[in-house]
Write a structure and sequence with these properties.
about 20% helix, about 130 residues, 3 helices, about 35% strand, alpha/beta
Length: about 130
């Protein structure tokens, strides 16, 4: 059996990053370590997880590129579907996100916009594909 189960974002402050996603996307906290260096949010079938940069460095000995505000986001995005893109963009900005690409309607009718979260990860907020 193979199942895509989770995505882990490497962040400076696990608790602050988790709270952004909890408060913005109404996700439920599943777990956070007593040291607050790893946590998981329930987001449906796939868990959105967070690991501190220090914990990640102890696991990934060969190193990794760290997400930083002064550079462009990585070539990967998290996607959240909603029926009200405008309201969710406003909520995310009020919670500390930065608008990266304003709302656009694709030729197939889908409405999309992009924010950068508190850790400079790219997040798409969109409607379902019609």
């Amino acid at each position: 059996m193979i199942k895509f189960k989770y995505v882990i974002l490497y962040v400076e402050n696990v608790e602050i990053s988790m709270n952004f996603y909890k408060d913005t996307f109404d996700a439920e906290i599943k777990f956070i370590t007593p040291e607050k260096d790893y946590g998981e949010l329930l987001t449906g079938e796939t868990t959105l997880s967070f690991a501190s940069v220090d914990l990640a460095a102890s696991n990934v000995k060969k190193g990794f590129l760290q997400s930083k505000a002064e550079v462009k986001p990585f070539g990967i995005e998290l996607g959240f579907v909603t029926d009200n893109v405008e309201a969710l963009i406003e909520k995310s900005i009020n919670n500390g996100a930065v608008l990266y690409e304003d709302i656009a309607v694709k030729p197939w009718g889908q409405k999309t916009a992009y924010i950068k979260d508190l850790d400079n990860y790219l997040v798409e907020i969109c409607t379902e594909i019609q």
